[in-house]
UniProtKB/TrEMBL annotation:
Entry annotated with the keyword Transferase: yes
UniProt organism field: freshwater metagenome
SUPFAM superfamilies attached to this UniProt entry: Nucleotide-diphospho-sugar transferases
Protein name: Unannotated protein
Any Pfam family hit: Glycos_transf_2
CDD domains: Glyco_tranf_GTA_type
Positions of the Glycosyltransferase 2-like domain: 2-156
Length: 320
């Protein structure tokens, strides 16, 4: 387990305790203190009697990506799990993810469902991670659907892929997942094993604009990869709407073909491709949206129109 922390003393104790209380006892917990100026060092010293805990201390703040790569480099275990210092994992989390890797030698990455909570620990919502590999591959061309604090990956594969890259911060995890996906299989524990703190001072809140920009660029690159459109590292800006819609269609077909060749399930892959294509037309004018959607999926279009009509009729008062 690698936990980077910078001035995170407020939540760090709970994060470390939940790791040391895992049902899987043969673990190492590496906390990278990235030049903290608060009580973080004191919190960590209170755990130093446990030989499973290792602390790496940066004299100055080097940033999240440098801390993550330092933790990976220092790890001795072949499997590395991730969690932020203000999140919490269930006692069964590591054991369940390790079991996934034991069941599939080709697995390079695993994740779990997670819940977001407020400062009082009250759950806001549960966010499932797609368990179908085909659906997950396509969904990653729309958004990052693997929670960073739920991830576990093979150390050697991540090092071979080049580790985390600072130029994609704060989407450094999204970038890494997209470089890992072509290298092996992905597994999902179908239960909530991680609680995310919805922290208004967290990176995702402070760097929302950059996170959105990086996410859109990474998603477009991955869509080109799935569609077979050449260099996935190319960054050529926004594609025309119809080009992108066709890319979703090609990506869906290629994913289904590859899954069938592996004797894997293709369940929901076509629908995920249609959903992705429909996302492309959301910003278009009404006429374009209607024409594209009816062309992509007439049954879904007609069903949606009927549902809207019934909803309108249900809200009307016949006595007025």
């Amino acid at each position: 387990m690698v936990i980077p922390v910078y001035d995170g003393a407020k939540h760090l104790r709970a994060a470390v305790e939940c790791m040391l209380q895992q049902t899987l006892t043969d673990i190492e917990v590496i906390v990278v203190d990235d030049g903290s100026t608060d009580e973080t060092p004191e919190v960590l010293r209170s755990f130093m009697g446990d030989p499973r805990l290792r602390v790496i201390t940066h004299v100055t703040n080097l940033g999240l990506v440098a801390s993550l790569n330092a933790g990976i480099e220092a790890a001795q275990a072949p499997l590395i799990a991730r969690m932020d210092a203000d999140d919490w994992s269930a006692p069964t989390r590591l054991a369940r993810q390790v079991a996934l890797f034991d069941s599939d030698p080709r697995m390079v990455l695993s994740a779990t469902h997670f819940a977001t909570v407020d400062a009082a620990g009250e759950a806001h919502r549960v966010i499932p991670t797609f368990g179908s590999r085909g659906r997950l591959l396509l969904a990653m061309a729309a958004f990052n659907c693997i929670g960073h604090s739920t991830a576990m990956f093979r150390k050697d594969v991540v090092e071979r892929a080049g580790g985390y890259r600072a130029e994609w911060m704060p989407g450094e995890d999204y970038d890494l997942w997209l470089r890992l996906l072509p290298l092996g299989s992905v597994g999902v524990v179908p239960s909530v094993e991680v609680r995310y703190l919805d922290n208004p001072n967290g990176i995702s809140h402070r760097m929302t604009a950059m996170l959105t920009d990086h996410g859109q660029r990474l998603a477009a690159r991955w869509l080109r990869t799935l569609a077979g459109d050449g260099d996935s590292e190319r960054d050529d800006g926004d594609q025309p709407m119809l080009v992108t819609v066709r890319q979703w269609g090609r990506a869906s077909r290629r994913v289904r073909q590859n899954l069938r060749a592996e004797d894997s399930t293709v369940r929901e892959v076509r629908m995920q491709g249609l959903l992705g294509a429909m996302r492309v037309v959301r910003g278009q004018n009404v006429l374009v949206r209607h024409l594209v959607v009816v062309g992509l999926c007439p049954i879904l279009y007609v069903g949606g129109q009927v549902e809207r009509l019934l909803r309108k009729l249900g809200n009307s008062d016949p006595l007025r």
